[in-house]
Amino acid sequence: MLDELFGLSGKTALITGGGSGIGAMMAHGFAHAGARVIICSRKLHQVEETAAQINSSSPSGHIEAFSGDVSSEEGIDAIVSEVNARTNKLNILVNNAGISWGAPLGQFPHSAWEKVMNVNVAALAHLTQQLLPILIKTASDEDPARVLNLGSVMGKHPLADGAYSYSASKAAVHHLTAILGKELAGQRVTVNALAPGPFQSKMTAFATAKEEQAKAVGDDVPLGRIGKPSDIQGASLFLCSPAGAYVTGAILPLDGGIHVITGGNLFGAAM
């Protein structure tokens, strides 16, 4: 029963930015759940290496990779063409590709807003729009197609740490997820998002690459650690498998409890 409920046998998924970090974690989970997983990123060698590593772990599904760049309309159109050339069905789209930029407020450049909002928001919206025909064709009442977006705890709470455009972009992703969840439900496409806290990835390598760094960051998380691959895999499998077929427009916190931190007792000093 559990294999059927959380399995992805016979499904085809596309994961952007699937060569490393959270995208690679998802790709591993999806492949071992039985899916055909197509991963893409700008660095072909990286996605090919990731595909080879996952395929060598004997998954029940498999991984294939190609070079794809979501930072321009032409690049997105090329991704769509490649997907349509490889498959006539797409059950799952994971909009994982993203970038960040950090600088003090007084030094934060205009270009950081343009670049980050373009990749994290505009590209996500355009790729979803362009892949809707194949997603809708694959969808049914009992088994909707799935769109899973990558938000962030930084898009829900004021934790910018100098990443102003990144935080604003992820807030936009959350709101767009809710809008699309509402608008696409009638076409049997669910749209949800994960809002991760700290995980080890290239984007967070400055703070989590070393184990002592990861432990220090994890000590400030209510559950006492940073996220691990199985956390991403479990949450994404829920939303993209039959188990999550009745969920849409949801933003799932995946942050070890950071989103419920409210500070100390309001009247503690007087007691």
The name of the CATH superfamily reads: NAD(P)-binding Rossmann-like Domain
| Low-confidence segments | none
Distance between the termini: 53 Å
- Helix and strand composition category: alpha/beta
- SS field, number of helical segments: 9
Strand order of the largest sheet: 3-2-1-4-5-6-7
Average pLDDT taken over every residue:
95
The CATH architecture classification is: 3-Layer(aba) Sandwich
Strand proportion = 5-15%
Order of helices and strands: HEHEHEHEHEHEHHHE
- Give the CATH class: Alpha Beta
* Tally of domains: 1
At CATH level 3, the topology is Rossmann fold
- Tally of strands: 7
How would you sum up the global shape?
globular
Helical content band: 40-55%
The largest pleated sheet is described as: 7 strands, parallel
Question: Whole-number radius of gyration?
Answer: 18 Å
Would you write up a description of this structure?
The protein is an alpha/beta fold and 271 residues long. It has one domain: NAD(P)-binding Rossmann-like Domain (Rossmann fold). 44% of the residues lie in helices and 14% in strands. It is built from 9 helices and 7 strands. Strands 3-2-1-4-5-6-7 form a 7-stranded parallel sheet, sandwiched between helices. β1, α2 (21-32) and β2 (36-41) form a beta-alpha-beta unit. The longest helix has 29 residues, at 110-138. The protein is globular, with a radius of gyration of 18 Å. The model has no long low-confidence stretch (mean pLDDT 95).
